[in-house]
Write the structure tokens for this entry.
Amino acid sequence: MEIAVIVSLIFLGIVLLMLEFFVVTGTVVPGVIGIALMLAGVYLSYINFGTEIGHFTLLATLLFIFITIYKLLKSNTWKKVTLNSSIESKVNEISGTLIIGDKGIAISRLAPMGKVMIKNIMVEAKAENEFINPKEEIVVIGIESSKVIVTRNLNNQ
């Protein structure tokens, strides 16, 4: 009966440790409980069967852990539960329709980032050295990759 308890403790500890590694990572609780159960199983082995069997149990437990981790990492099972898609788009794709000097209106407060409407296209823009309130007219003063840089349209004030 003692052997069954020791094997059960070690097996349950390994299962909890694998759950910690592969399923509920970062929670720590299953890992700590799993390590405690494995240590309890090895300790009971030392106490009940002596040093030689205790060493054998410790070695077998460590070997079984490493083999289990290796097999789980090498299997393709984890590819079924991992996210394999990639995002190719950009946040604010400006497809050459906007040029410096285009005029528009601020949709949200630019402090310093916000939404603007230019040529019936809503884009995220950055205000240059100022805050711009909603419904104020703006003018494009720069375009850097996916950023539109605007300022107040001083010609209409």
The two ends are 91 Å apart (CA to CA).
